Amino acid sequence: MDVIGIISQLVFFLIAALTLAAGLATVLLRNVFHAGLALVGTFFGVAALYLMLEAEFLAVVQILIYIGAIAVLILFAIMLTRSLMKNEDSNINKQWAWVATVIVILFVGLFILILQVPWQHSGTAVYTDLVPHLGTALLTTYLLPFEIVSVLLLAALIGAFIIARE
Amino acid sequence: MDIWSFITNPFVSIYELIRGGLSGLLTSVGVPDEIVRLIVFLVMGGIVVTVLLIVAPVMMMYMTWLERKLVARMQDRIGPNRAGPFGLLVPIADMIKFLTKEDIVPEGVDGPVHFLAPIVVVIPVILSFAVIQFGVGMGAVDLNLALLYLMAMGSVATIGVFMAGFGSHNKFALIGGMRAAAQIISYEIPQILAVAVIVLLAGSISLTGIIKAQSGLFGLGWFIFYLPVGPIAFFIFLLAATAEINRVPFDLPEAESELVAGYHTEYSGMKFGLFYLAEFLNTFLISAVGASLFFGGWQGPFVQQVPVLGIVYFFAKTIVLIGVQLWFRGTLPRLRVDQLMNFGWKRLVPATLALILFTASFLWAYRLFNQFLTGLGG
Fold first, then answer.
1. What is the nearest CA distance from A116 to chain B, expressed in angstroms?
2. A15 with A44: CB under 8 angstroms?
3. A68–B158: do the CB atoms touch at under 8 Å?
4. How confident is the model over B45-61, as pLDDT tens digits?
5. Which residues contact B47 (CB under 8 A, 6 or more apart)?
6. At the N or C end, where does chain A have fewer CB atoms within 10 A?
7. Number of Cβ within a 10 Å radius of residue B308
8. Candidates 3.30.1330.30, 1.20.120.1200, 1.20.1070.10, 3.40.50.20; correct CATH number of A1-88?
9. How far apart are CA B279 and CA B253, in angstroms?
10. CA–CA min distance B352, chain A (Å)
11. Per-residue model confidence as pLDDT tens digits over A32-49
């Protein structure tokens, strides 16, 4: 294998290890705020993986939406609801065995599926400038799903308002 | 390479000379092609990053000087005038002070979070400079998604502010952090929407594309002159961006009179210095982005013939915009929290949405009209 291939393999393993470590920290840390920060680390790792796959748009959107919006909201909620000094909760509850079983089955299923599907790849990148194509596709071919998603988000927004009013 | 093209475009020429020399040297020694490309990529990347990492903090140091001088003049004072001519050595003295001060970590803080917060605040700002085009062909990276990237980096800094507020285990810091987060989330929306107007006009989300789209009218086809859309979008952008980096009149997260220093109350020494650095770098950044989006970046008369003028134009525009922000700081009082939220959500967001609708329908009508004209001609 050539030098650049080896280096990108090494970088991949580094990013994957960091992502997995951050993911584990998210579920194992006892301080909720620390867990939230570890979640941010996981999102970053996934964004880095997207970058390695030359999906720059996905990577940037991953950071913008998952870190800039979702993680910030999660941290905001933690800061609003937790008292400052004592936030050490146990993170093992009675359902852990069931959850572990379901997750192991899901993981094995996905793993087998990924191995079986004959993935197509065309050696070269399909689009050099992806964004115009993406925009056109969203507003022509996939207009209906796009609009339905926006209605869904609107419904969630109105729902949040109603709950907050009560 | 002839002398004229070297003089008119020195920085890019020097870069090309180093790159050509390095790859020539490596190839003549007998290094395989692929590894030559890798080494040249790494070395040239290292040089560009180093230059950026020098330019940005030096700019920041002299912005602190400019702020002191300008605000002093606005308040009928003289400002710093002891260290060096016109007080020009004050930023250097400041830097030495920050670096040598004792770093005090209060006992009750959340160790790692408190330690990492200033770093998380500074890194996104410095990363943002990677896509800024400082002159003709003088950006570290010419990213297709430059604008989205800038927005993403801007939103990451919020996490650092949260970490500072929460990790300090201090009421003032916590309130400051919460205010900062609420403010950043609210004003991110009008900022992105105002930028979307420019994206509509330019038809591109790369900074190079947007700057190139403003090349008309002898290098003066700036989007700020697209009446009435340009000035309104610029005004909204400037307000929202100022709010997003927590500067006057939107500096509630660090309001001295109520919150001591807000989220960085518990920081001292260089860690406080990093927050300070991030604040000024952010001011520089949004001024640079504003200059690129609305004032044509490096565009200006004769920039095609003499590319080095691009740097002069870019920095002149950026410094004027920095001056506008310092002027805000010197003259405006601070808003209240409810005023801030009402203004953001009830005024700015609907106004920008209306602006986008107007711009889009205008562009659509313009295209129809053009089609009609060509139809008549054909």
1. 35
2. no
3. yes
4. 888 888 888 888 888 88
5. B15, B18
6. C
7. 18
8. 1.20.120.1200
9. 12
10. 19
11. 788 888 999 999 999 999
